[in-house]
Input
Amino acid sequence: MEEGENNLDDDEEDYLVSPHQSKNELGNFKLQHIMIVAIVFGMAGIWIGRQIWYRAPYAGNELQSLIPSTNNAIIGNLTNLNISLSNYKAVLIKKENQLNTKVNKEEAAVVASCTDANNNKRHNPNSNMWKAMRDFALVMNKLKAPAFIHGGTLLGLVRYCTTFGDDVDFALPAKWYQHNYDKISAELKKSGFRFKWYFPGAKRSFPKPSIRKIEGFETSWIKYNIKVDLFGAVVKNDQYITGLWTPSTKFNKCYTNFNGNFKPFTWHGVPVKVPVPFDAVLKSLYGSKYMKKVRWRWNIEPFTIGSCKRSRLRRSERRERFLSILKWTLHRRNRHENR
Output
């Protein structure tokens, strides 16, 4: 019995598997499955490749038969597109010619004073006033800015066909002024102009974008010791509105009547734009007797004779003015008592 038992134990030992052996068998089983899957995919790939190989010539012939028709269709579409572009270009050229014809029909502004020989003799092309106006106008033309001469500069053109007074006045539509100020500033400085100040406030610092949005924004520039003022204007169909700052933080509106057009004019060889008709414009700015010399103080006559309207001071501004007057009065009284 013991021998039988020993033999049975030997058989059982043959079927016993150690943990290490089971892991090896499991790994072999997975490897077999991977190999089978790889063989299947490989055979499928070979079959697909053979199908493509055998069918390629026929597919190539089919593609080659399609190419001519496709080329013809593409060429036809390109031809139609070219014809359409040519027609569109012809329409654009026609409209441009019509626009040029319209501009030529409008022609340049006619200034009676420039046909007077005496006024032509009066003009001095070497004066600092004229050179400052000329250089500023050339910068505006270079930028293609819709700037136009304004105020005393326009009055000098209509009266004497030359610049006169103490400064030069240009105006520019406020929106264009606001969005292109950096370009304007860079070109003016490149041309030799020096920044003087801006309004509101008569401040000499660089105006921030938020300042440029303020109604009545204005800058002043210096060249040849002549000040050139560039006003921001709100242009409407029958008038444009500029501003007058009195004092430097109080904005007063000035209304200038015109017909909504700015005509080109070559002023002693310098292209400028002018608001028309001159009579309506200058009557608004300087009254009905604008052709005669009158006493003109920049902070009085624009309101009494011209079309500027004083704006009412805000409560804080009235309080500030009252305190400043009171302070000045007390200062004078103290000085008088100390004598």
